[in-house]
Protein: Homoserine dehydrogenase
Amino acid sequence: MKKVKIALLGLGNVGCGVWKILNSNKEEIQKRSGYEIEVAKILVRETKKDRGVIVPEEILTTDFNEILNDKDIKIVIEVMGGIEPAREYMLKAMDKKKHIVTANKMLLATGGDEIFEKADSMGVMFHYEASVAGGIPIINGINESLTANKVEQLYGIVNGTTNYILSKMETEGLSFKAALDEATEKGYAEADPISDIEGFDAQYKLAILSSLAFGTKIDVENVYREGITNIKSIDMDYAKEFKMVIKLLAIVKDVNGKLELRVHPTMIPKNHPLANVYDSFNAIFIKGNAVGDLMFYGRGAGDLPTGSAVVSDLISILRSNIDLENINPVVKNNLWDKKIRDIRSVESKYYIRTTVEDKPGVLGEITTILGDCGISLRSVIQRGVESPQHDKVTLVLVTHYTKEAKVIEAIDEIYELKTVKKIDNIIRIEDFKN
Amino acid sequence: MKKVKIALLGLGNVGCGVWKILNSNKEEIQKRSGYEIEVAKILVRETKKDRGVIVPEEILTTDFNEILNDKDIKIVIEVMGGIEPAREYMLKAMDKKKHIVTANKMLLATGGDEIFEKADSMGVMFHYEASVAGGIPIINGINESLTANKVEQLYGIVNGTTNYILSKMETEGLSFKAALDEATEKGYAEADPISDIEGFDAQYKLAILSSLAFGTKIDVENVYREGITNIKSIDMDYAKEFKMVIKLLAIVKDVNGKLELRVHPTMIPKNHPLANVYDSFNAIFIKGNAVGDLMFYGRGAGDLPTGSAVVSDLISILRSNIDLENINPVVKNNLWDKKIRDIRSVESKYYIRTTVEDKPGVLGEITTILGDCGISLRSVIQRGVESPQHDKVTLVLVTHYTKEAKVIEAIDEIYELKTVKKIDNIIRIEDFKN
Ligand SMILES: NC(=O)c1ccc[n+]([C@@H]2O[C@H](COP(=O)([O-])OP(=O)(O)OC[C@H]3O[C@@H](n4cnc5c(N)ncnc54)[C@H](OP(=O)(O)O)[C@@H]3O)[C@@H](O)[C@H]2O)c1
Ligand SMILES: NC(=O)c1ccc[n+]([C@@H]2O[C@H](COP(=O)([O-])OP(=O)(O)OC[C@H]3O[C@@H](n4cnc5c(N)ncnc54)[C@H](OP(=O)(O)O)[C@@H]3O)[C@@H](O)[C@H]2O)c1
Structure:
């Protein structure tokens, strides 16, 4: 049996998952890769910490140079996260002809080009399946299995924390706050949950997926983003009434050659496969012009699922000839130049929840404004609100397909009305027909 | 741009799909593969037939030797189906160092070894993503993306025709016959639907998937098989009452190192992701010891979805170096020897529908037999039956987990009872907990 030495950068959540899998599935990995794998070094900040896994102390190091300068280490697995020093370490490792596996979505989404180009110029392999949707093989799926397609649309539930929160709000009627607390307690949400609940994490992932699906460079700034902090139980109730559910979707559509990129809470029909993705599960739904509708579903995070993707990447590298002088990785994110559509050009249906005075004529004023803006309504629901004076009502409007720019214009005008107390929420509705 | 010549064997459903994709997605395929692809020859039985696609007449041929002896044809795409002459043609083409893409599940499931060995010994690439579940990249998924896992269980809805029929029975209350007629009308079911409705097609596919997932040779004869022809509307009704649905599942489980392989109608909980796979869609649900629960969902048949898999395979071959003298394909179906568990050893819950005389004591007699066989009941439902004399009732029994051998024994005894008119149906229940 051939032998190979590898190194890990990081032994946190994912690093420990990788370590566990390399041990528990040793025989499978050997047979499938053809190699006996030795983890020669692991970079950490603190060698004395209890990590819940038994790792020989002598392989832990705080000095990256021990890895960099060890010629026998052929593959480096970066699972430390963050931009620096992860970026620097990967670039240096590639300069020394080491192949790379990474799970670092943030780095890929913000500075991926430099990394890809380095891999290309050094002729080393660079794999990153774990960077999006943990154990779900969506990167490989797009890069290897959908190559015959023009991808038309991609819709992802790519953040487990927010899906967990929305699931709890939907199925158990919890408030956003209570659901977030539960997610934190269960270890799904991090101490600082902003990146999840404000949609930044999903934004990174959508940038990576879109770049691959459309073979083009995507600047993460071009992904429109809204989080889920404004979703209330009452929105869940209305959604249910419309036979819909609310999910944080990462959406990219090719509309006449321009890409529309957005992350936001979305109402989707209850009978759509994505609507039945609950708890912390992730799923990515793709429409290709040949394959039609396709969905990948699974665990988007966690030590073992993410480790599964990392170790499978490692096996892919071992199955290729790691000693070949020049591998030619096909760079797939610079095949086309695609223009980006502004969010104002998006066409969608909209759910608009407002609080208005309980007076005759209010609805008339609002519908006149909508009509003047060229927006037609699909339904209107008016209900009493718990207020001391019983003088306010909730008015929910659902539009037909319309341009976002028109909605923005109309909302500005509606908000000017003296009878309108509040625009409580606006949620885009996706029926997967456009 | 590099150029490559390929040939198709067959220009039926799938062949036409491949042809259409090669034309409509020409630019994508060129950029992603790095090649301009020329279809130099297409083998058919009848060159004059109208096929709904425009193909230059001079590339159609009825003589396989024109393809075999053309040195410039580097890749052969076999989409003719059947065992012979598909088998012979593929073997001969590999002897001439041509790479192969095939969609032929029947051949792979029954005579795959010989083909794989030939590919291995000739050092040519051999891809067959389309052979299972059409456009869903499940072969690649298992072969490339789950390699870090011990697969524990796999459950597939891998036959679109039967899923369409069962969906119609469930959601529209159609009889089996009416649903089958509709499937035939829509072109989902073939003129001779036996292979689909009796589960042979699913049996082939399960043999292929299991062989890959467990790295072992699977004889298709070792896959237990039951079709859906015995499912009645009343079974659908009971399933609904139990918050379940009935699906034709292809199941493989590793039980203490032995494989349990079976295709049969199965009651599954309505809230399981597989339960929401409707119409002619396919899905494969996998439990891996690292990745956890994973599901792939999409179109299992049709010209374009199947063509998507075939053309993606073609692109994979082109991305590798097709001129390398010796590719080393990793043969993955002979890594382990696995024993097969007999169906009688399966542990499951069972739904048993019987027709019995409407007399006191009947239920007692039956439960006594079940008790004597060590089977405990979870629920019993008794209902009147439309019969002239109103002297019969339907008795539905649902068991807890029990060994199939015990159920067979009990049923034999129950059927001996004079008060028992008929054992109408026995359906295994899968709760995904065992
Ligand atoms: N967690 C998931 O489920 C998941 C899923 C998909 C992708 N990812 C990605 O995987 C990566 C790792 O995530 P994680 O959750 O495993 O992170 P984590 O638990 O915070 O672990 C980070 C590890 O890296 C080490 N490290 C960090 N900075 C270092 C430095 N400057 N020098 C040396 N060692 C350093 C830490 O060492 P110490 O332990 O000594 O502090 C720790 O072992 C991230 O890119 C993340 O986005 C995570
Ligand atoms: N249909 C699907 O959705 C689907 C999905 C997955 C996998 N598959 C697999 O794909 C393969 C093809 O299926 P299909 O539905 O495309 O079959 P099909 O429509 O029956 O087409 C078969 C083609 O092969 C040609 N052919 C058959 N025997 C031949 C012979 N002896 N010599 C020369 N040409 C011959 C036929 O020529 P003529 O046209 O001249 O008769 C026809 O063009 C099968 O292995 C099937 O299991 C199909």
